[in-house]
Amino acid sequence: MKKSIMVLGASLLLGGIASAQKVDFEEYDLDNGLHVILHNDSSAPVVITSVMYHVGSKDENPDRTGFAHFFEHLLFEGTENIKRGEWFKIVSSNGGINNANTSDDRTYYYEVFPSNNLELGLWMESERMLHPVINQIGVDTQNGVIKEEKRTVFDNKPYGNYISVVKESMFKNHPYRWTTIGSMKDLDAATLDEFKDFHKKFYTPNNAVLVVSGDFEKKQAKEWIRKYFGTIPRGESLKKQIFIEEPITQTIKATYEDPNIQIPMLVASYRTPSMKTRDARILEMISCLLSAGKSSILYKKIVDDKKMALQIGAFPYTQEDYGMYIIYCLPIGENTTASILKEIDEEIVKLQTELISEKDYEKLQNIIDNQFVNNNASVEEIAENLAKYYLLYGDINLINTEVELFHSITREEIRDVAKKYLNPNQRLILDYVPVKEKAQN
């Protein structure tokens, strides 16, 4: 009876949250294949224009890595109608902000303007798609910018390269084996024609989705979208290559020396399925249970109670084709990475052999609801989520229904998925250590 009341209470709460947070949208296609999504929200006088292209680092050639991230920068250089160096000036002088980001699977550009500048935002994104200036001056400039970014974010930052090492250790065939920033050697060797060919292939209307989100008049927006994007030529039809990774059947061991650290870091990484699968969502719940905040299982046990580590955490690294579940830890005192790994494995075995408590399950439901609300808390976040669910998941309405998928996951499934993926013979163990001092002669 108690369980029934709990389930009923959770379903009523879910219904209330889903209703309050429902995101309404309209979608349609232009003749050139550009998918358009419109979301009205008049709660604030701002409007977001954004374009997500279905191109990321996984679409690069192995000897020309970093191209997608390079274009994230390069396509701010200017267009036939926006002079070099003027892009950011135009945005800021009209009360706006803009940015872009790149992942393994997609590239995303956006502007946030006051509502009366929707036409400007649409024109600028159409210029980026149709008339970018790709010349040697821009390539050389951004090459220097990206090299400095790599030094700052990766090479000179404590623990800055651990994801790079994890990826190249976990993937042998899939392009996920390299990072989005790529190789500076590859970028140096690339010709201007190679950059132009990459742009021509991927930055096309039929490989993109345009989202307009915020305070705007729909009829007028459609007219401007047709005016600025409707005449852009359709690109070639793309067929994504499928890369298959053989299952990991024995522990992979790797070591990396980082000159920027004094405390070693333990990393345990498990390969997981596509973020579109139910199992991937269950693994997200497992991550919440093990490491979501200071009340999580691993933090309470290893940091608070046993004081074996300075920090511990875990997170799902979700991707379109495969993913990873990564646990990391910084030991303190006389504790070793091996002793902490033993403690971690004990908790994973519990998940694999016992059902989590009703209390922990209820806590997970609350975390899910909180994340659902936070993920759609602003029109900027809604715009990106609409693009993501359409382009990468193939189901735009997940912006409203994914929370229901999480709530349908059972305690039995949590146990079974932990048992399926989180085994010692299916993982990488990375010892990420300080540089060893060289012996004196």
UniProtKB/TrEMBL annotation:
User: Does tRNA processing count among this protein's keywords?
Assistant: no
Q: What is this protein called?
A: Insulinase family protein
What is the organism of origin for this protein? Flavobacterium soyangense
Q: Spell out the InterPro entries in the cross-references.
A: Metalloenz_LuxS/M16, Pept_M16_N, Peptidase_M16, Peptidase_M16_C
Q: What family does this belong to? A: Belongs to the peptidase M16 family.
Q: Which residues form the Peptidase M16 N-terminal domain?
A: 36-177
- Stored Gene3D superfamilies: Metalloenzyme, LuxS/M16 peptidase-like (3.30.830.10)
Keyword Nucleotide-binding listed: no
What biological processes does GO assign it?
A: proteolysis
Peptidase M16 C-terminal domain segment(s) = 190-367
Which superkingdom, per the lineage?
A: Bacteria
Keyword annotations of the record? Hydrolase, Metalloprotease, Protease, Signal, Zinc
